[in-house]
Design a protein that fits this description.
The structure holds two protein chains of two kinds.
Chain A lengths: L1 H24 L7 H5 L8 H5 L5 E4 L7 E5 L5 E4 L3 H28 L3 H4 L4 H10 L1 H11 L5 H22 L5 H6 L8 H16 L3 H12 L1 H7 L33 H15 L11 E7 L10 E9 L1 E2 L4 E7 L2 E7 L6 E5 L3 E7 L5 E6 L8 E4 L2 E4 L1 E7 L7 E7 L5 E3 L4 E6 L7 H10 L3 H8 L7 E7 L4 E6 L3 E3 L8 E2 L6 E4 L7 E3 L5 E4 L24 H10 L7 H8 L5 H13 L7 H11 L10 H24 L10 H14 L15 H20 L8 H4 L1 E6 L8 E5 L17 E3 L2 E5 L4 E5 L17 H5 L4 E2 L3 H5 L5 E6 L1
Parallel strand pairs in A: 1-31, 3-7, 6-25, 11-21
Antiparallel strand pairs in A: 2-3, 2-31, 4-5, 4-24, 5-27, 5-28, 7-8, 8-9, 9-10, 10-18, 11-17, 12-13, 14-15, 16-17, 18-19, 19-23, 20-22, 25-26, 28-29, 29-30
Helix pairs in contact in A: 4-8, 4-10, 7-10, 11-12, 11-13, 14-15, 18-22, 20-22
Chain B lengths: L2 H21 L6 H11 L3 H26 L3 H11 L6 H26 L28
Classes of the chains: A alpha+beta, B mainly alpha.
Chain lengths: 818, 143
Amino acid sequence: MRAVRFVNSAAALIVSAAVLYAAFFGAGPLPALGPAFNPATGAWTMAADASSYGSQSLHLDGLQQPARVVLEAGGTAHVVAATDHDLYLAVGYVHAKFRLFQMDLLRRQGEGLLSQVVGKVALDSDRFELQLGLLRTAQVEWSQLPAGDQSRLALTAYAQGVNDRIREAERQHQLPAMFTLLGYQPEPWTPIDSLIVKGDMTQTLNFTDTPLVMALLNKSLGPDLTSEWFPVLPPNQQSPYDPGPYPAAAAPAPIAAVTSITEAQASSDAALYAKLNALPPGLIATGGASNNWAIAGSRTASGGALMSGDPHLHLTLPSIWFQLSMDSPGYHASGVSIPGTPVVLIGHNQHISWSLTDAQNQQTFFYDEQEDSAHPNQYFWQGAWHRYEMVSYDIPVLGSSPQHLTVKLSVHGPVISERGLTTSVWWAGNIPSQDLGVLLRIGQAADFKGFRDALRAWYSPTHNFVYADDKGNIGLISAGYYPQVAKGQPWLPMPGTGEYDVTGTIPYDQIPQVYDPPSGYVWSANQRQVTGDYPYYIGTASNFFDPGYRANEINRFLAQNKKFTAADMMALQIDTRDYLASEMVPVLLQSLNGEQLDADEQKAQAALAAWDDRMETGSTAASIWWTFWQQYLSATFDPWWKSHNVKVDRSELDDALGQDLEAWSLRDQTNPAFTLIGSAQNALDVMKQTFHVTVKLLATRLGPDPAQWTWGRVHQRTLENLAAVSGLDYGPRPDRGDSRTPLAAPDFPSTHGPSWRMIVDWGAATFSGIYPGGQSENPASAWYTNRAETWWDGRYEPMLDATAAASSPHAVTWSLEL
Amino acid sequence: MNGPARFIAVLVVAVAVALLGVYLGAWWLPFPVGAGAGLILRRARWALVAGALAGLAAWSVPLIAEQVQFGLKETSLSLAAIMGFNGAATIPIALTVAVGLLLGLTGAWLGSAARAFLPAPPRPAQKLSGQRLEVKEPVLAKR
């Protein structure tokens, strides 16, 4: 009997311990079950949060006067405050109310603190971020802001608003469920966190590894072929928006011929390239894709200027954007903001509107530091040995001891690789800049002069800022730093001994820009902004600038002799015409003249012949064209990659190689590049062979009936959950477009594209916008995906002001009290 | 207090305390409450029932209340997705209910097992007056 009691007690103890352990600490992939699933205070409270958006009075610490937030039925927020301070505070509160987890992830990414909450899986990302230095830059930026500065006031008030919400959510047990499930509480928000979020965007858009890629190509393909295939100026026909004439400038530094890369350099570059490629997506810029344009009032039906903007970014749920209007005595702006920052990034005020695309010029330069064993922890620069500055970090890691990291800093910037050679990186994003102040001043500008003056202080990332105003004027400025090196080949890693250093930037008055051009329109789509006559180096055609097809298509559309309307702008934003297809398909069809074709091939040929070059989901020709072009690239370049043992993934360079292939196919069909392919001797031969392969491939993949080879079966799009929970994605769904169409939809499935579409008609005083997803990060909320369908269908919502919003159907008001 | 009355009293108190604790964020309270029931109730099976019901009620009532007030379909689907069970909205609910149940049940089991090691309470003195005592003669096997 005693033994039975002991056994029973031991069993009770063991089972209880197991249950309590799982409840307190989780088990395997399960979070701590107790706090996570507690129905009163755990993740289930997302239901209460999703229902908490009704009209109400809220008390916010730090408010100077009562304020209010009007929420439209679709979630767009309109913040109205009696002081600028209260405006920024209220915006902080609103952002945190809807996007606190997203904001926390963004700051953790930039501050190297992801491992603290997700464990070792994020350690590489954290190490890299701390090496690169977003945190150091943000700290310097904050320290440089003088007391009383508008940005300082905005950041401080914004942080207070965020912290008001954090405290409220903790009190009400309504922190976003992901905090509960990951088992941590958000730290108080600081102004530096906001500067980090801005740094994240800069990094995503313009920290590139292109010089490493160029070095590896140079080593494998050889200097001559590399310079021919990956030139500074684009080999294809493009449409720069600023055609010159350019101001007389200091004589441009000559661009030297590409020289050889040593074995040691190539080995070191390969190691660094591999390291950077292993990082999570988004940390390295991989080419941009955004559109914007404006049409002067003289060319529009309404008589006022028209402006369009659609920045193409990773399409996430929640979106990178939060739509709002901000009204205070000193600031009136409506558009989209990035949660974590207290300002409208793209939008309009009472007099001007603006949007932006990435300018794509080179802002990342790699330097091989000269070291030797007699001078430990030193590098040779400008004739003398200098000691590296050292910065130490302890990275907290969930479930493990903190990881120590020492970052070396040379005069060029942080050392990011010591595998083989020691490589440091000069990155414009590491230069402290007060971009937030620029955006605040843009929001307060009333004309082009104010707009242009504000942008003078914009450094990085370089953006094409399009402009239109209520007087019918338009403009475009590619604002930011354009680093110039003293000598050398900046598209390759350069010696760090001083002679090749960045010496300055192109003067602001000489950067690409236009105002009220004779054509009556301006446009940018990441293309090179200037012609070959421009007297400065701004980057190579390969991997810095876009191949130019979207820009060409937009230019073609806007060059029509007609009076444009806002509806035309909307049609162009969702246009799926592939400009490259419009050039190449006729050549392909020409190559097939007289060729023996089987029944399927004849159907494919007929489909292409009748095609309007639009990548619509129901189009079979779109699938044939896309597959053909991929096969054509492969047939032309894969033999070279194989014979030269090129270590860079060819598909990563398809944009650059595609420009070559386009140019050769149209104007140089006997280019020696075609000679490696069996007996083929020219472009038309390769095209014919590729066409046969294409039809067979499609039959294998999509079935024997060519009528079933629709683009929608090949090409889908997904809005991805930010926390990588695939079950909370939207899609995948068949979708139109490709990487070259104005409605950009690269990759399979496509996860990038128009993250916000805005149309402004100053003549009609109408403003329209839409982004995919919804205002709330709470997946249980009706505002998690409520805009996705509208966006997908190419429709827009009116951008109301606060007064109109208050009287719109089902609008609610939050009264913010002291 | 006789057995059933004691059981009901313990059950009511256990449910109330556990429920209040859960509403205040003390999600673990069903465990000590169950343990208390195990220590108080003489019969282990009644203790287990009381602990299980207390845990179940403490974690289910708030869930039911939220369902009534807000609706839990979207939340449940979202949690299922996060857990990797797309579309299986019942799994988070089942898991939640199971956690509450297990906390109360294991607490009661442990309390009940511990009770076996406690010194037996002194038997109450037999009440003679007013009672009719029957004393049976021992039956002898030998006939």
